[in-house]
Amino acid sequence: MTVRALILCIVASALLAAGGSAVSAQDRPGHSRGHRPAAEAAGASLDDVIARVERQYRARVVRADVREEKGRKVYVLRLLDERSGRVWTVRVDAESGRVQ
After folding, report:
1. 54-68 as b/e, with b when 16 or more CB fall inside 10 Å?
2. Global confidence as pTM
3. Which of 3, 43, 74, 79 has the smallest number of Cβ neighbours within 10 A?
4. From CA 18, how far away is CA 9, in angstroms rounded?
């Protein structure tokens, strides 16, 4: 097993242990690309934001949360770069779709 593969396994295990389920929105029942729940109709849908962020950062979203920060709805996305094993967080304003 290469060092990269070992690191990836460790990171994936840590994410699962710390966060419960490491499943992105498109993998959850009732969520599909193009589906916009009524709560998200006014702004950027979580599915659209996940797809855009994955393309922009060339990484996979392994966790997606919706939070209220300073009176605004924010998508908090956990990304994993499978090549390097790097994990980081990106916050996206749900109304405008802009990365914060």
Report:
1. beebebebbbbeeee
2. 0.59
3. 3
4. 14
